[in-house]
């Protein structure tokens, strides 16, 4: 598996900077969401696959804890890990850490999510084994739990 998939260098763009010359708060969420989609795509769970099978991810909670500002010239990595999951992967929590090249923590994004039936607009209570296997392949946080 591509380990760079879960630990990825990001580029800070001029448009990502706010009036205080550091990363705008909403950009953290956008970067984390982009990485999640890239991971799912790489592992074979593409938007097209989800659309064809009639399900997609839904978030219940998304929070960012800011630790150290990120500036335009900073070299930043996002480290993505699974923090919690039901055994069938129908519910899950993912953690994104924004780190400097010196491994200093800049921010943590925690999300809680599930899968929704996109036709019935209801939460799914069980997932295909392919999704469970895919989520089991994620790196886990040091305090990962099956819920």
User: What is the CATH topology assignment?
Assistant: Thiol Ester Dehydrase, Chain A
Mean pLDDT: 95
| Global morphology | globular
The major beta sheet can be summarized as: 7 strands, mixed
Taken in chain order, the helices and strands follow as EHHEEEEEHE
Strand content: 35-45%
Helix count, DSSP H or I runs of 4 or more residues: 3
Indicate the CATH class.
Alpha Beta
What Rg do the Cα atoms give? 16 Å
Distance between the termini: 26 Å
Just name the CATH architecture: Roll
Structure described in brief:
The protein is an alpha+beta fold and 147 residues long. It has helices spanning 25-42, 47-53, 129-136, and strands at 7-10, 55-66, 76-85, 91-100, 105-117, 122-123, 140-146.
Q: What can you tell me about this protein's structure?
A:
By secondary structure, this protein is of the alpha+beta class. It is globular and about 45 Å long. The longest helix is centred in the first third of the chain and has 18 residues, at 25-42. Strands 1, 2, 3, 4, 5, 6 and 7 form a seven-stranded mixed sheet that branches. It has a single domain (3-146), classed as Thiol Ester Dehydrase, Chain A. It is built from three helices and seven strands. The two termini are 26 Å apart. The protein has helices at residues 25-42, 47-53, 129-136, and strands spanning 7-10, 55-66, 76-85, 91-100, 105-117, 122-123, 140-146.
